[in-house]
Amino acid sequence: MRHAAQRQLPHLTGQQFVLLMEQLKHRAGIRIDSPQGVIESCVGERIRALGLATSEDYLGLFDNSISARAEWMALIDLLTVKETRFFRQGAALEAVGEYVGSWAQRCSRQADAGNGFSFWSAGCSRGQELYSIAMVVEHLLRQREPWLEWHGIGTDISFQAITDAQRGQYLESAIERIPAAYRKAFTRGEADGSWSISECIRTRTHFFHSNLLHVNDAPFSDFNIIFCQNVLIYFEHEKQLWIMDQLADRLRPGGLLVLGAGEDMGWKNKRMQRESWPGVSAYIKLEV
Question: pLDDT tens across 194-233, in order?
């Protein structure tokens, strides 16, 4: 009976729920649209982890202290880490492949490749998205321009997601979603039954904790590709438009911006031209 009672913890009153959502928006700039039951489940997980008794005890932790800021991040981790998988956005990755191939054809040793090829997965979760893009890029560039260097970065609001991504180690069931040729070339089995991303990918990919709310302060730019899918939904519409403008600023001329379906509603940027890849919201940054 005691265990069942613990499972039923916590219950957030209407006022507690509203205040928690307002504080999440204030602290992280994001909007959580999960049902109250899902949010209560995440709060309950934190209550049990901290050995507390009630929701009131938990919410009482949130003052202006350093420990309170750390607890906000722990709760945000639970609320925002989404289920993801390798090669999840098939059409978008095909568009990336076409773009890389076209870019490589235009590239020469004396031309625009002096800075190499770079890409950013914004909202990378546990790394599968960035690693998927990296496999496509490595495969195509090694075929056409084996001398060319590339690098990719992934960012996410979740510290736990970034930690998992940096580890680059996954269950066999996750690795099975990678196309066979890429799986053979870019993963290796470990003694414990897990699978790791190969060194040729991991040494060129890096992960950082970052919130798109503060993208204007991000210390990186000059990308060939920015991949930002299913992240902007967490922000208010005006903030979404601002973030997309900021991402466009960080593209090289001729660079590719890939967004989630419908995330570009109402967005107009005179430097960006919408592309016609079926099922993909993609834009090219104009050269001028």
Answer: 999 999 999 999 999 998 988 988 888 899 999 999 888 8
**Structure confidence by residue, pLDDT tens digits, 16-74:** 888 888 888 777 777 777 778 888 888 888 888 888 888 888 888 888 787 777 788 78
Q: List CB contacts of 109: < 8 A, sequence separation 6 or more.
A: 147
Q: How far is CA 179 from CA 6, 119, 142, 213, 271, in A?
A: 43, 21, 17, 34, 35
Task: Locate 254 and state its tokens.
Answer: 């001729």
Positive or negative torsion for Cα 253, 258, 261, 265:
negative
The domain 90-285 having CATH identifier 3.30.70.100: the answer here is no
Residue 191 CB coordination number (10 Å):
5
Task: Report residue 111 as tokens.
Answer: 């031309």
Is residue 264 within 8 Å of residue 281, measured between CB atoms? yes
Question: How crowded is the C-beta side of 48, counted as CA atoms within 13 Å?
Answer: 13
